[in-house]
Design brief:
Elements (H helix, E strand, L loop, with lengths): L2 H7 L7 E2 L6 H11 L12 E6 L2 H22 L5 H12 L6 E8 L6 H9 L2 H13 L2 E5 L3 H4 L1 H8 L5 E3 L3 E6 L12 H4 L13
Antiparallel strand pairs: 1-6, 2-3, 3-5, 3-6, 4-6
The chain binds flavin mononucleotide (FMN).
Length: 207
């Protein structure tokens, strides 16, 4: 798959995850090695960890924590979400334990308060997460981030997995083969509307 195709068609896959196909560890290893090449700010690179969960009972417990927060959120705000997107999110979260692998990227050390160090902290995690997602896509797998448990149950999931208090779970990714190979680029806002020149909200012509 060429770079532009991978970069523009790596979607959050929720409905097309193959719950029944095993994800071999050597395939995941290849994706994690690619993710290791992502940029990270100075010493933050040494603070990053992946925790991969395959155990059925552990996945079920993590999924239940995610569902609890997600269901409460949908009950309150579900009417504001487009019906198709809501149905897709519900299908995903209600079946989370069926996903072969849950990958939890973690950072040793809690996030700092100031913008400079916060930028370095989260900015040292998401390039690796995205590279991992791109590498999965290139190999016929898909993923979606699912972070509902971080709202109310980060500590519960930490206790379940033995994650120390000073380690933050940055996110959680559901990883599986996809039941289809072709995905399309998503609709995004017009580039001209989100690009400013020389001053805030000063739009201009794009080349
Ligand atoms: C930081 C971050 C957090 C996200 N959290 C969730 C989540 O909790 N549940 C979920 O279904 N998708 C989550 N997503 C996926 C977004 O909803 C998704 O990227 C967005 O809908 C755009 O769709 P696309 O990825 O297919 O382009 C998250 C994405 C990011 C980058």
């Amino acid at each position: 798959m060429d770079a532009e195709t991978v970069l523009t068609t790596t979607r959050s896959v929720r409905r097309k995850l193959d719950f029944d196909r095993d994800v071999p560890q050597d395939v995941l290893d290849g994706c994690l090695r690619i993710a290791q090449q992502a940029p990270a700010a100075g010493s933050m690179a040494a603070q990053f960890r992946w925790l991969l969960v395959r155990d059925a009972a552990t996945k079920a417990a993590i999924a239940a924590y995610n569902r609890e927060t997600a269901e409460a959120s949908w009950a309150k705000y579900g009417h504001l979400v487009e019906a198709r997107a809501l149905a897709s999110a519900q299908h995903f979260v209600r079946n989370l334990e069926r996903v072969p692998v849950l990958a939890i990227p973690c950072m040793i050390g809690r996030p700092p308060a100031d913008a400079f160090t916060q930028s370095a902290y989260f900015g040292s995690a998401y390039p690796a997460i995205w590279s991992f997602q791109l590498a999965l896509r290139d190999r016929g797998l898909g993923s979606s981030i699912c972070g509902y448990h971080l709202q109310d149950h980060e500590a519960d999931v930490a206790a379940l997995l033995g994650i120390p208090d000073d380690v933050m779970q940055i996110s959680l990714l559901a990883v599986a083969y996809t039941t289809q190979r072709d995905f399309r680029p998503a609709t995004r806002p017009a580039l001209a509307d989100i690009t400013y020149f020389d001053a805030w909200e000063r739009t201009g012509s794009l080349g």
